[in-house]
Specification:
The complex is a heterodimer of chains A (112) and B (112).
Chain A (H helix, E strand, L loop, with lengths): L2 E5 L2 E5 L4 E8 L6 E6 L6 E6 L5 E4 L2 E5 L3 E6 L8 E8 L8 E3 L3 E6 L1
Parallel strand pairs in A: 2-11
Antiparallel strand pairs in A: 1-3, 3-8, 4-5, 4-9, 6-7, 7-8, 9-10, 9-11
Chain B lengths: L4 E3 L2 E4 L5 E6 L6 E7 L5 E8 L2 E5 L7 E4 L6 E5 L8 E8 L6 E2 L3 E5 L1
Parallel strand pairs in B: 2-11
Antiparallel strand pairs in B: 1-3, 3-8, 4-5, 4-9, 5-6, 7-8, 9-10, 9-11
Classes of the chains: A mainly beta (112), B mainly beta (112).
Chain lengths: 112, 112
C-alpha cells in the first residue's frame, strides 16, 4: 500500500532560522510528489510538483528536492507568514485517475 | 487566478439528516474530486469523477455517499443519513489533466 510519512510532526523556528521538512514515501512506481501548504480551516494550496530524483523546485523562501525515497522542503530565512502545515502527497494510482495519498503534515510555526 | 468554490463554508446538521455539499470547479477542468479531513488527521481521498461518472472511490465512500454533476458547472457530494463520524472538513478539488489539483477552501460539516 502506498504510504507517505512526514517528519517532524511540528517544528518551531525563530524568524530567519532555516530548516528542512522531510517526506518519505513508499509507492509502487513514483508518478510525482506534491507539496501543499495548508492554513488553518483552509484547503491545501499547491506549492510544487517533483517528478524525478534530483529534481529541485524553488518558490520564494521554499525549495523542494526529491530523491528516490524521500523529499525535502527547505525553508530559508523563514518569516512568520510561512507558518502553516506543509503537506506532502503522492499519486496512488488506481483505475483511471490519480488520487492523492497524503502524509499527516508538518505544522510549522515561525516566531517573530 | 481561477479557484474552486465550495458552499456552504460551515454546515451543522442533525444525525440521520441528508446533506448536500456544493462545489464549483474551475471551468476548463475535467477531473473532479472529493476529499475529507477529520480534525487532526490526514487528508483522505473519497471519490474521483471524470466524464460524468465515478472513476475511483475509497472504502470510506459507501452507499451513504453519492456525487453528481447536475449541470455544466456544479459538482455535489450528498451524504444520505449523516453519522457523528461524518463530521469533518470536506474538500472539493479539480484538475485539468488528472495530475496536480486545485483544492477549494472546504466545507466544515458538523453532525450533532
Amino acid at each position: 500500500e502506498d504510504q507517505v510519512t512526514q517528519s517532524p510532526e511540528a517544528l518551531r523556528l525563530q524568524e530567519g532560522e532555516s530548516s528542512s521538512l522531510n517526506c518519505s514515501y513508499t509507492v509502487s512506481g513514483l508518478r510525482g510528489l506534491f507539496w501543499y501548504r495548508q492554513d488553518p480551516g483552509k484547503g491545501p494550496e499547491f506549492l510544487f510538483t517533483l517528478y524525478s530524483a534530483g529534481e529541485e523546485k524553488e518558490k520564494e523562501r521554499l525549495k523542494a528536492t526529491l530523491t528516490k525515497k524521500e523529499s525535502f522542503l527547505h525553508i530559508t530565512a523563514p518569516k512568520p507568514e510561512d507558518s502553516a502545515t506543509y503537506l506532502c502527497a503522492v499519486p496512488g494510482y488506481q483505475g483511471g485517475s490519480e488520487k492523492l495519498v497524503f502524509g499527516k503534515g508538518t505544522k510549522l510555526t515561525v516566531n517573530p | 487566478e481561477p479557484e474552486v468554490t465550495q458552499t456552504p463554508s460551515h454546515q451543522v446538521t442533525q444525525m440521520g439528516q441528508e446533506v448536500i455539499l456544493r462545489c464549483v470547479p474551475i471551468s476548463n477542468h475535467l477531473y473532479f474530486y472529493w476529499y475529507r479531513q477529520i480534525l487532526g488527521q490526514k487528508v483522505e481521498f473519497l471519490v474521483s469523477f471524470y466524464n460524468n461518472e465515478i472513476s475511483e472511490k475509497s472504502e470510506i465512500f459507501d452507499d451513504q455517499f453519492s456525487v453528481e454533476r447536475p449541470d455544466g458547472s456544479n459538482f455535489t457530494l450528498k451524504i444520505r443519513s449523516t453519522k457523528l463520524e461524518d463530521s469533518a472538513m470536506y474538500f472539493c478539488a479539480s484538475s485539468e489533466t488528472g495530475i496536480g489539483y486545485t483544492f477549494g477552501s472546504g466545507t466544515r460539516l458538523t453532525v450533532v
